[in-house]
């Protein structure tokens, strides 16, 4: 086994994860050929053979590797298209978990669960996994329909029943502790909905996706009230009241995403921080007006400053999410988050 990727990037104490496709971009289906994997970059498509992929994993050790797959992340009407993608994924899975599995004893291989919004094809795939008796400690769900603009899942609840059925199909006695990965960028409200469906791990791509657009997050993730039992009462005025955002201008913005667009000229004379009371480096040192100026003049540092804020806000949200689960106030936390993202 080769050197650890964690050592190479000076993060040896962290778990390293290798994903074949960049989930901050729409997935381009149908370009894999046999056991060749289509990788996309600014230069276009590159086909990586199974031998090259195999050699790379052996020489550069990752703790977790996602098995290659083929699927759709848009609305698909043709079952034939879904089945073709399913067969390609099945071929990759059989190669990884059959021929190659013994070579990667120190690496966990993640099972891709594919099939778009087609329960029949999903069950066909999970049946193959059961019949093949493949052992895996984690799975990652693919094939959720994405919003073309935000690249987030269109509706978590739309897939609730499908996820529950597939979970049940791949769970055997004594094997209930598999971890489950949510593959797409996710807003905070989508995260808490997915947690309720048993998802354990999420990608960090949401901050990147909105940063590239020149957006900054302003959602709240912490409030002492949610830690109090009375917050659960329907009679309590606090539970009925929408949590106030930073300022009145924010109320007029995108209530669905709770972001502000720093490309908007109205921020050219706004000398406040990106988010009131935020303690990140960007909010302590830069104003909305300055970041608007950087974006307007196409300075690369604009996205760096926005990314620091967005990723800080997002990761602190996850820290509070974990605290809410550990300290038994997740339901209050969920209500607090969903109330902000409530669609009018």
Features:
344 residues; alpha/beta; six-stranded parallel beta sheet; two-stranded parallel ribbon; 13 helices; 40% helix; globular
Strand-helix topology:
Layout: E1 3-4, H1 5-8, E2 17-18, E3 37-41, E4 44-48, H2 50-59, E5 60-61, E6 64-66, H3 79-99, E7 108-113, H4 119-132, E8 138-141, H5 160-170, E9 179-182, H6 188-196, E10 201-202, H7 205-212, E11 215-217, H8 237-240, H9 248-251, E12 259-261, H10 281-285, H11 288-296, H12 301-326, H13 330-340
Parallel strand pairs: 1-5, 2-6, 6-7, 7-8, 8-9, 9-10
Antiparallel strand pairs: 3-4, 11-12
- Spatial extent as radius of gyration: 22 Å
* β-strand number: 12
Structural class: alpha/beta
Helix-residue proportion: 25-40%
The biggest sheet, with number of strands, parallel, antiparallel or mixed sense and barrel status, is: 6 strands, parallel
């Amino acid at each position: 086994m080769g050197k650890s990727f964690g050592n190479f990037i000076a993060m040896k104490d962290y778990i390293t994860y290798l994903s074949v496709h960049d989930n901050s971009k729409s997935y381009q289906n149908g370009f894999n050929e046999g056991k060749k994997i289509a990788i996309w970059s600014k230069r276009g498509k590159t086909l990586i053979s199974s031998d090259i992929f195999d050699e790379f994993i052996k020489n550069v050790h990752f703790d977790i590797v996602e098995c290659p797959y083929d699927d759709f992340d848009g609305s698909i009407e043709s079952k034939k298209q879904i089945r073709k993608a399913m067969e390609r994924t099945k071929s990759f899975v059989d190669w990884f978990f059959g021929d190659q599995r013994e070579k990667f004893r120190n690496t966990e291989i993640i099972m891709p669960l594919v099939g778009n919004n087609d329960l029949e094809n999903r069950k066909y795939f999970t049946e193959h996994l059961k019949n093949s008796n493949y052992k895996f400690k984690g799975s990652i769900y693919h094939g959720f329909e994405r919003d073309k603009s935000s690249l987030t899942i269109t509706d978590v609840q739309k897939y609730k029943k499908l996820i529950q059925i597939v979970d049940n199909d791949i769970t055997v006695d004594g094997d209930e502790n598999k971890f489950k990965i949510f593959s797409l960028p996710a807003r905070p409200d989508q995260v808490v909905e997915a947690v309720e469906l048993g998802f354990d791990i999420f990608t960090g791509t949401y901050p990147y996706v909105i940063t590239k657009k020149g957006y900054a997050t302003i959602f709240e993730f912490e409030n002492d009230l949610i830690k109090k039992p009375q917050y659960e009462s329907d009679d309590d005025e606090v539970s009925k009241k929408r949590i106030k955002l930073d300022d009145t201008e924010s109320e007029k913005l995108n209530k669905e995403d709770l972001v502000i667009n720093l490309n908007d000229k109205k921020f050219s004379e706004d000398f406040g921080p990106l988010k009131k009371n935020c303690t990140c480096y960007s909010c302590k040192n830069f104003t909305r007006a300055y970041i608007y100026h950087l974006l307007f003049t196409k300075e690369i540092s604009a996205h760096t400053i926005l990314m620091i804020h967005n990723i800080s806000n997002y990761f602190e949200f996850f820290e509070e999410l974990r605290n809410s689960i550990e300290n038994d106030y997740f339901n209050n936390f969920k209500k607090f988050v969903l109330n902000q993202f409530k669609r009018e």
